[in-house]
Design brief:
single chain, 460 residues, alpha/beta, 5-stranded parallel beta sheet
């Protein structure tokens, strides 16, 4: 029987196996940030265990970082302590850190790919659930808990049960105004938030093959939202061209040698998956969430379903929505374009193409937060900053920002926020805040109109 892409990468990293049990998997790259690493460093210190491979670890500051006045001392005491602790731990252990203010600083899942740290065929982990982002390169990438962070520090390996395999194919031609974010929100709305539990997902079909690397990262980023351990897309010409020339990418003949290897990373024709789903691209429209998990999504032309279920009712009560209601024309006072899902240069180009020559609605607070210092630099160099500022948008400094309310960027209680982030859980963007997940195009249009619109009717 043939092997899946996932099998090929996994099997190449197995150090040892327990008969009919878990396997010891070698980890190529360990990404860390300030929130989930301090306890792991402390555990090693208490047990007098050195960090096994500091050269395989890259650190950044992102979750707690302010997005205004980053040159000033961090006001929040807890955030400041965590950031200082990260610096201290990295210095003590010889770990590369791109801290606040560094030209390579940014959200961990944005800066690692853009620096060429993320490469096809790798195993990558981070104490952060959206590590699945890196699977866009044909890597096995997944989030781990703090005790596992300590395990990787100590051994550069993890003891794991091998997940089952799942393939989601999307074939056909996407409609105008349908972005990668809509594709993944549609898939999750159809399959549910636990459909991927126990599985590693491969995305296949021409729709993913035709996507940019930014688009593929958006899709893989949200694999975790359908319960999957991670998501992958087979590397191809688009991948190789993206990686080439980046700071930590292989150079010259070494790069050519790597590409020859990477070309073998695709699922064999006779490989069998444990579960498969196929969707038609033509069925997908711009999407919005109406509830408190990413599976509660509808097309812009649809109304909230009529379900009778206690948790469904609780979700609607929290969001202050009614069954059968359309979200079109809903007044919105907050818009957030950012997060590890949608804060890459492509996302800001899409938003700017809609915003150009228009004005933000007076009732809207529109926050644009680039995923890294490098994205911020591109926004400026490409003239997008001028477009946004003329339209009245607020461009902030890089960080996780209003994705998770772990910093100063919180949505006030009771307010709706059309957000390009990945989670719409209760209180995710601030206590009592109500999150509506959408694409950067939908978010930009909402900011201009001051309400949700059917974007398909506004595209030339």
């Amino acid at each position: 029987m043939g092997k899946t892409l996932f099998d090929k990468v996994w099997d190449a990293h197995v150090v040892d196996s327990i008969k009919d049990g878990p396997q010891i998997l070698y980890i190529d790259k360990h990404l860390i940030h300030e929130v989930t690493s301090p306890q792991a460093f402390n555990e090693l210190k208490e047990r007098k265990i050195p960090v096994a491979r500091p050269d395989k670890i890259v650190a950044t500051a992102d979750h707690n970082t302010p997005t205004i006045d980053q040159h000033l001392p961090v006001k929040d005491v807890l955030s400041r302590n965590q950031l200082e602790q990260l610096t201290k731990n990295c210095n003590e252990n010889g770990i590369t850190l791109y801290g606040l203010g560094h030209k390579y600083n940014g959200i961990v899942h944005v800066m690692a790919p853009e620096l060429g740290i993320t490469q096809p065929g790798m195993t990558m982990v981070c104490g952060d659930s959206h590590t699945s982002t890196h699977g866009a390169f044909g890597a096995i990438a997944f989030g781990i808990g703090t005790s596992q962070v300590a395990q990787v520090f100590a051994s550069q390996c993890l003891l794991l049960e091998k997940p089952k395999s799942l393939r989601v194919s999307v074939k056909g031609k996407l409609k105008k105004g349908v972005l990668p974010k809509d594709v993944i929100l549609y898939i999750i709305s159809q399959l549910g938030t636990n459909s991927g539990t126990g599985y590693f997902c491969e995305y296949a079909g021409n729709v993913f093959e035709e996507m940019s690397m930014e688009g593929r990262m958006t899709v893989c980023n949200m694999s975790i939202e359908m319960g999957a351990r991670g998501g992958m897309i087979a590397p191809d010409k688009t991948t190789f061209e993206y990686v080439k020339g980046r700071k930590f990418a292989p150079k010259d003949s070494e790069f050519d040698k790597k590409v020859a290897e990477w070309k073998t990373l695709k699922t064999d024709k006779n490989a069998v998956f444990d579960k498969e789903y196929t969707f038609n691209a033509e069925d997908i429209e711009p999407m919005l969430t109406y509830g408190t998990n990413p599976g509660m999504g509808i097309k812009i032309t649809e109304t909230i379903p009529e379900e009778n279920d206690a948790s469904f009712e609780k979700s609607l009560a929290y969001m202050n929505f009614q069954k059968g209601e359309s979200l079109v024309n809903k007044k919105i006072n907050y818009v957030f374009i950012g997060s590890c899902t949608n804060s890459r240069i492509e996302d800001f180009r899409v938003a700017a193409s809609y915003v150009r020559g228009k004005q933000k609605a007076q009732n809207v607070n529109a926050w644009l937060v680039p995923g890294s210092q490098q994205v911020a630099k591109q926004i400026k160099e490409e003239g997008l900053q001028t477009v946004f500022e003329r339209a009245g948008f607020e461009l902030r400094q890089p960080g996780c920002s209003a994705c998770l309310a772990m910093n100063d960027d919180k949505i006030p209680e009771g307010e709706y926020c059309v957000s390009t982030s990945n989670r719409n859980f209760e209180g995710r963007q601030g206590q009592g805040a109500r999150t509506i997940l959408a694409s950067p195009l939908m978010a930009a249009a909402t900011a201009v109109e001051g309400r949700i619109i059917d974007i398909t009717k506004h595209l030339n």
